[in-house]
Amino acid sequence: MTPAIEVRNLWKRFVLRHNRAETLKSRIMGVFDSRLRERRETFWALQDVTLSVQQGETLGLIGPNGSGKSTLLRLIARTHYPTRGSVTVRGRVSPMLEIGIGFHQELTGQENIYLNGSLLGLSRREVERLYPAIVEFSELEDFIDVPVKNYSSGMHARLGFSIAAHLDPDVLLIDEALSVGDEGFQRKCQERMQQFRARGVTIMFVSHNLRTVASLCDRVCLLVHGKVEALGPVDAVVSRYQELTAAMTSGAERMLGPELSPRSGDVL
Amino acid sequence: MLNDTLRYRDLLVALVATELKVKYRGSALGLLWSLLNPLALILIYSVAFQYIIRIQIEHFTVFLIAGLLPWGFFASSATASTVSLMVNAGLLKKVHFPREILPAATVLFNLIQTMLALAVFLPSLFVLRGSVPWTLVFYPVVLAIQAVFVTGVALGLSALTVAFRDLRHLTEVGLTLLFWLTPIVYHISMVPAGMQAAFRLNPMTSFVSVYQDIAYWGRPPSAGDFLVLIGWAVSALLVGWTIFRRRAPYLAEDL
Ligand SMILES: Nc1ncnc2c1ncn2[C@@H]1O[C@H](COP(=O)(O)OP(=O)(O)O)[C@@H](O)[C@H]1O
Ligand SMILES: [Mg+2]
Questions:
Q1: CA of A223 to the centre of ligand 2 (A)
Q2: Shortest-distance Cα residue to atom 16 of ligand 1
Q3: How far is it, in rounded angstroms, from Cα A257 to Cα B171?
Q4: Strand order of the sheet with strand A171-175?
Q5: Which residues of B touch A (CB under 8 A)?
Q6: For chain A, is the Cβ count within 10 Å smaller at the N or the C terminus?
Q7: How many other CB atoms are there within 10 angstroms of residue A174's CB atom?
Q8: Contact state of A105 with B90 under an 8 Å Cβ cutoff
Q9: What is the pLDDT of residue B3?
Q10: Closest Cβ opposite residue A102 in set B90, B164, B167
Q11: Which residues of A touch B14 (CB under 8 A)?
Q12: Number of domains in chain B
């Protein structure tokens, strides 16, 4: 079987810009006054990540805040680019990166459905065909003509998931997107994801809800400080994460060791 | 590449429609509002230059319109392009698509507005003048070359403004200066001889002069004129594209 997602020796470096010089003015002032100068520090959000997800497989991604889960999904969705290494994805990707997908706040729900369809490469005709199902699934019939800026975060998530879930994706990326929906909608989304699994869609799924992860995923990857700490069967990886969390909360952070510190410390 | 372009043609249309909706939401007149700004400028400059300053140009309003509408295309595209990536940060952060479509949609939207203004004002221009110069057949060609030029400027400005946010205000100030340095409300021959060479370094001077030739003087542009315009268009596109390509991969993380 060919993998649907292949991540090879992936490194991602962000430049943390303290006192960020966002304007020409501040850039020029920095020349004369060193206190105003921008200080740059590099930060490795992902370090040598290698993993592959088989076609039809659901991979869970867990780890503490700031461990690089969202960054990894962004690189797979190609909104961000690798510093080193490569990402290969086969098929159409439906990304749901954090709350909502690419919404234009001034547009209504309906207009956003069309805009998002074309953003993801669908023709207008294809979106027209999918439109009724998207609206029905989102249960937002009464709000579909309202600008998205007036939606609650739960409504954002509903519309976002409904669009992502109806675009007939080969690969579905979901980043904590379901956690803001209400109980009923979360259950509906999980059912939908089970349908996708049955249909052979490849899913990468970030969640802090370990029970959901356990019920939906075939394998789990644990990221810590941008590195793959564990990758394998659900039970083993989840209990490894729980051990780690317990160790961290009991103050024994030394367990992780200083070599896991993500800051390379080199100042640009 | 071509495949991509076809695939994202619907996206370009959707983004142009978005600009239209966001700008004219809730106004029955919609796009017609976009005629108000040129109309006001035409009235003000006509009165000021014909009756107050008493400029020595026959059919001054016709002369003014010939240069003012293409200037408007350039200036409004440049202004809008400075924010075209920033207002769409939500889309850039969440979905992968060719980033250059955003400034391209901004230019296309402004081109449509300009063509609407041309459709309304060019005919009225000949009522004032009494005849239609045959040289108007060159208009679409010159407009197409200008659109390439404007696209280059928009690509460069949109990407640079993400790094330098105050470029947006600098652009507005710069455009006001450049307007008076471009022979739109006066003729290039009125510029002191010693300064004319410097004026010709301004690409908009070359474009506006050719527009005045074909819409006011009824003079066909020379091959040399076309070469200069194409030269400006290709250079702007090359520079703008180079700047844009370098920044494009980092737009989602910088915004
Ligand atoms: N655009 C960015 N610029 C600088 N640092 C970033 C950027 N995006 C993410 N980071 C940093 O990368 C690290 C990983 O973030 P993220 O992938 O969002 O973690 P997670 O989703 O696992 O909580 C964090 O420390 C975050 O501050
Ligand atoms: Mg995250």
A1: 11
A2: A68
A3: 51
A4: A93-96, A171-175, A202-206, A58-62, A219-224, A227-233
A5: 7-8, 10-11, 13-15, 18, 21-22, 25, 88, 90-97, 163-167, 170, 249-250, 252-253
A6: N
A7: 26
A8: yes
A9: 57
A10: B90
A11: 114-115, 118-119, 124
A12: 1
Chain A residues close to B22, C-beta within 8 Å: 104, 106-107
pLDDT at position A117 is: 86
- What's the mean pLDDT in B47-56? 86
Q: pTM for the whole thing?
A: 0.88
Q: How far is B238 from chain A (nearest CA, A)?
A: 23
User: Each residue of A183-207: pLDDT tens digit?
Assistant: 888 888 888 889 999 999 999 999 8
Residue nearest to atom 18 of ligand 1 (CA): A70
Please judge whether B249 and A81 are an interchain contact, meaning their C-beta atoms are less than 8 angstroms apart.
Answer: yes
Q: Which pLDDT tens digit goes with each residue over B127-181?
A: 777 788 899 999 999 999 999 999 999 999 999 999 899 999 999 999 999 999 9
Nearest atom (ligand 1) to Cα of A176: 21
- Work out the widest C-alpha separation in chain B, in whole angstroms: 57
Strand order in the sheet with A84-89: A84-89, A3-18, A39-54, A263-267
Segment among A30-39, A41-50, A57-66, A75-84 with least mean pLDDT: A30-39
What is the span of the domain harbouring residue B249?
2-254
Return d(Cα B11, Cα B15) in angstroms, integer.
6
